[in-house]
Amino acid sequence: MEYIGVEKDYFRSFIEGGKVDEYIERKSQNGVWGDDIEIQAMSEIYNLAIEIYAYSTKPMKTFHEAQVEDDDQIAEKPIPLRLSYHGGSHYNCIVAQDWNEGHALIKGLQPGQLEEEHISSLKEPVEPIDEQALKKALDSGSKEEECKETSIVKQVYLQADPQKLRKMIQQSREEFETQ
Predict the structure, then answer these.
(1) CATH 3.90.70.80: which residues of the chain?
(2) What is the spatial distance between Cα 169 and Cα 179, in angstroms, rounded to a whole number?
(3) Cα 156 from Cα 169, distance rounded (Å)
(4) Which has fewest Cβ within 10 Å: 32, 63, 88, 129?
(5) CA 28 from chain center: how many Å?
(6) Helix, strand or coil for residue 40?
(7) Could you tell me the maximum CA-CA distance found in the chain, to the nearest angstrom?
(8) Do 5 and 20 form a contact (C-beta atoms < 8 A)?
(9) CATH code at 2-123
(10) pLDDT-based confidence at residue 122 (cuts at 50, 70, 90)
């Protein structure tokens, strides 16, 4: 529920009346069940596809196709979380008969660790576009779109995961050298 609160601008349009805080308060009570909104949030937190089946071998609904950022990750693409939906109100997790703890979707983390890290990263302040620098660049004759693009690229660079950024730069260099 904390994730939905942090991302309330996104989830607002999916909540009747757009009253996210009231929704979170109600859904945080014991005995209140989750639904599509909570499943969507869970799929985003874990970067994991969630497939829901009901009376068919084809998914009735799929949330969040898992993101594969490079060829090395294709072999490591996580198995989707599969749920069955019964009676219009209950979900069960679908696992293989031989499933055991060794098949954990996320290994090596303490319970709640991944969730807390993901939510904390969303709470970190985002550096706003430097309006003065943008105005100065525009006054010097630069094109507005180029200036905005440069500012946005700088923001993305400052917020990027350093390992992923280094890998992207290395791939870009390799592509450039082969041309």
Answers:
(1) 2-123
(2) 16
(3) 14
(4) 88
(5) 21
(6) helix
(7) 67
(8) yes
(9) 3.90.70.80
(10) confident
